[in-house]
Amino acid sequence: MKNFIFLFLFLLMPIISFANGIDTTITKSPNGSWTVKYKADEPINKISFIRNPDKSRTMRWHPTSPELEVFYQNKQEHIARKDRTTFKEAELILTPTYKDLSKDYAPFSPFSDGGMLFHSGRFFTCINSCINNLNHWKMTLKIPDDEHIIVNGKIFHSSTSWLDKNDGISVYVGKQNPIETDSYIALIDKGLPEKIQKSLSSDIPKMMNYFENKLGKLPFKEKPTLFASYAKINGHSSQGGTLPNRIFMHWNKNNLETSVKNVKFINDTLWFFGHEAAHLYQSGKVTLLSDDPSQSWLHEGHADILASDVLLSLYPSSTDYVNSRFKNIKNNCAKGLKKMALIDAAEVGQFHNYYTCGFVIHSAIENMAKSQNKGGHSAYSTWNQFRAKVEDGKAVGQQTFFSVVDDIAKTNSSEKIATFINIRHDEPKKAIDALLGL
User: Fold this and answer.
1) Whole-angstrom Cα distance, residue 425 to residue 423?
2) Which CATH class is domain 2-97+120-167?
3) What CA–CA distance (Å, rounded) separates 123 from 357?
4) pTM higher than 0.70 for the full model?
């Protein structure tokens, strides 16, 4: 018995060590309103949010108690009493609409039938301040009786609880049932135009098979889950993203029925699908290949160059579109580099620069590999070697990636790339052309 107790305590240690001491309960009421309640084990001074892309919680999350406030300080959002005395509970009324967040996932992605997908990581908090080794959050979700929850690939009714971690997960609440295919479990908004629904059902599996052959199988026992939502409101944006074994896509607009008649929109959508499918296969057995926002060119540019490859390989008629898009990408990268160094883009909220200039950097590596008569597509071989090094214990991030690039090139190409990243360019188009001529 003593050995059993010791083993039990040992198994609990990671959870006890990394749990944040706050229970999080998210509730959807029958009237459609959403709330979140935070309950601490002991009296605390404030609750701090771990993900802070902006200060929109101060305008969209409203405490039910007039004695509490949500405020923004030192680039972080917090909850505290206005008189700064201690408290144990805080309940807030949420705004359950789509909100574009720079460098982060939208908190809510509405479906056209009233269903909802939300990102659990948006609710992660810490007591007082956040520390680096905090990585587990106790979550509970309660919903109306006539709806269901899909979390971690399973369906629940009324309520469920789970221990969350890392970047969080996508959680669905609504009445639509998922469909299981040979490739994935899908929850596709029935309000989407039929052409997009068919594309999601046919093109995504083709892209997944293509990337699996290049980057290896996904390291999960369960099939990946695809969420696709359509708000059908007066908007103009769309967003995609991946979390472990999950792809989600959202259209925050109401004109898709007209848009699908446009050939460019169809190609844009295929690129969108290709980019997100590529993200799904980038990590492999490791959950993180870069933890520095200023190095986001690494995975965003790589996902875009894989999107271009999958379009050229599976949809040859898109060649003119891909070439035109590359021209626009170079121009947009140049505009960004004229204003600031790429390394500074995240700090000033210009995250899109990592897509455009990241594509340029990975294209330059492609050109370099071709000049060395390397067989195959270097975007895959370079990435596979980079990932293998991280799996073997090398540091995450661009330095390990650069070591792979230099191994392939047998030169100091990484120094030229680093210079391209680290300075603002007075003549960015010349800098781009020079890099592409590595």
Assistant:
1) 6
2) mainly beta
3) 32
4) yes
